[in-house]
Specification:
Layout: H1 4-15, H2 20-44, H3 52-64, H4 74-100, H5 122-137, H6 139-150, H7 155-162, H8 166-186
């Protein structure tokens, strides 16, 4: 693992307009981005049509396009990366769901074609919708779930990004998990 301070220094240099720092940054964070993407993909199932490399590439392209972000540190970077990966997977699942319902359908004679359609990850869409509902009345808990569950950030890293205490993160994390569990059971 690379030095967290080195990553933070490069992010701050990138903030200051030193574009060459991005070239130095990406090799340092690539392994952790793959780790986050792998964690997401393990939850997706074996027949998922999006591969880990594609998820990392999509996130990378969206991260380098972030011009309005004032990077704070390494944890802030990976929290945003996790959020972006989650959005890519949600968009992918929704797109597959639309296709399953006939969107952009091409009519063919089924006698001529054998097609294997991957199952849409309805659980991911349900979790995303539950997180959106949670964010409406408690955005902090929603962000904590995103960072801890999807981003793989530690309690301390999450506290650092959100500028709250680790104790508060633990309390909100426990309450958010309980709320989400109840919410997902009801749907």
């Amino acid at each position: 693992m690379s030095n967290p301070h080195e990553i933070t220094d490069l992010l701050l240099a990138w903030n200051d307009g030193h574009s060459e720092s991005l070239d130095l940054l990406m090799p340092l964070v690539e392994r952790e981005l793959r780790h986050i993407a792998s964690a997401y993909m393990r939850r997706e199932g074996a027949n998922h049509t999006l591969q880990t490399d594609a998820l990392v590439n999509e996130a990378y392209l969206k991260l380098i396009d972030q011009r309005q972000v004032n990077w704070q540190n390494r944890a802030h970077f990976f929290a945003l990366a996790a959020t972006i990966m989650r959005r890519v997977l949600i968009d992918h699942a929704k797109s597959n769901h639309r296709m399953k319902r006939g969107g952009e359908a091409i009519h063919v004679d089924l006698a001529d074609v054998a097609v294997a359609v991957p199952a849409v990850d309805e659980d991911l869409i349900a979790l995303d919708q539950a997180l959106l509902r949670l964010a409406r009345f408690d955005p902090l808990k929603s962000r904590i779930v995103e960072m801890r569950h999807f981003g793989g950030l530690s309690v301390e890293e999450t506290a650092d990004v959100l500028e709250i205490s680790a104790t508060s993160v633990r309390r909100h994390w426990a309450l958010a998990k309980a709320w989400l569990k109840r919410e997902l059971r009801q749907n």
